[in-house]
Design a protein that fits this description.
InterPro entries: EmrE-like, SLC35_F1/F2/F6, SLC35F_Transporter. The protein is 79% helix and 0% strand.
Length: 330
């Protein structure tokens, strides 16, 4: 929780402060008045997702975490289909299967190389924490995709930073205050914590940009390569034994990722919004356009109705005239 608390605090300092100096609907006070409870739940989901996956390393192996963490992708696709109305094609499902096959090759390389690190003290608990974390991550990512595509990136990061800092700080004080007090602070430890916090800050800052350009599912597919890059770093830092399956798994994951993005997903049209404005202006303009269209359609319908009435009267008069002429002939 200390690690999470630091990077949530960095988000709060930058993006929450930006919301404070906004004007109009995008101001932090207006957001808190209308949507505070939604962001509380979102912040709680994100904090506990981070906490659960890190806690799982104490109970289960790295192989289990790598495999079970892929559970986030099917859950994310189901939630996107149900809440965001995203329509996936057969190509997308095939691409996901290819990416998961690449993960399987990576885990197989770990087992063959004897690098199945981690604890085995309580594998069932550890695996359960990974599944819980994957589900919470999926919920958080779906909410992130909806927010950045309909509202703004700054609003999402500002609210996550605010409530993430509060929730992680409370949880840190309740659960881990004794562990934090026992830390023997050295410059190496401070430097490692600072490096971790800066990496997570950069990750949180850039992920909404990619999500807005693609989708949360595509981003999570690309994140499958993260374990591979960690292994490549481990070859130099921890002298891991190299396996050709690492290259194979990287190529397979990249092929699946490219296939997934080559075919666009079908989503309902969304009104584009900027980071500096809320969605009320766009909604108002859309409502005005819809109202104008309705008025035009109603006017056209009235004109058509009057035109039909005139035609009916003329036809009736012609019919009456023909009856008079026929009677005169008789």
């Amino acid at each position: 929780m200390l690690q999470s608390f630091i990077h949530y605090t960095l988000l709060c300092i930058t993006y929450t402060t930006a919301l404070i100096f906004r004007n109009g609907y995008g101001n932090i006070l207006q957001i808190l008045k209308t949507k505070w409870w939604k962001y509380v739940l979102l912040g709680l989901t994100d904090v506990e997702a981070n906490y659960a996956v890190v806690k799982a390393y104490q109970y289960t192996t790295l192989t289990s975490i790598q495999l079970l963490d892929c559970f986030v992708i099917p859950v994310l696709m189901i939630l996107s289909w149900f809440f965001l109305k995203t329509c996936y094609r057969i190509t997308h499902f095939v691409s996901v299967c290819i990416c998961l096959a690449g993960v399987g090759a990576m885990v197989g390389a770990d087992i063959l190389a004897g690098q199945d690190q981690g604890s085995t003290s309580n594998i069932l608990l550890g695996d359960g924490l990974v599944l819980i974390s994957a589900t919470l991550y999926a919920i958080s990512n779906v909410c992130q995709e909806y927010t950045v595509k309909n509202l703004s990136r700054v609003e999402f990061l500002g609210m996550i930073g605010l409530f993430g800092t509060v929730i992680s700080g409370i949880q840190l004080g309740i659960i881990e205050h004794s562990e934090v007090s026992k830390i023997q602070w050295k410059w190496e430890i401070a430097l490692l914590l600072a490096g971790y916090a800066l990496c997570m800050y950069g990750f949180y800052s850039m992920m909404p940009i990619v999500v807005k350009m693609t989708s949360a599912t595509a981003v999570n597919l690309s994140l499958l390569t993260g374990d591979l890059f960690s292994l490549f770093c481990g070859l130099f830092l921890f002298h891991y034994s190299f396996s050709g399956l690492y290259i194979v798994s990287l190529v397979v994951i990249l092929i699946g990722f490219i296939m997934f993005n080559s075919v666009p997903t079908l989503m309902p049209p969304l009104a584009p919004t900027s980071d500096e404005e809320g969605s009320d202006n766009q909604t108002t303009e859309s409502d005005d356009e819809n109202t104008q269209r309705c008025v035009e359609m109603t006017t056209c319908a009235r004109v058509d109705l009057e035109r039909d009435q005139v035609k009916n009267r003329l036809n009736k008069r012609q019919l009456d005239n023909s009856v008079v002429i026929n009677s005169a002939k008789l």
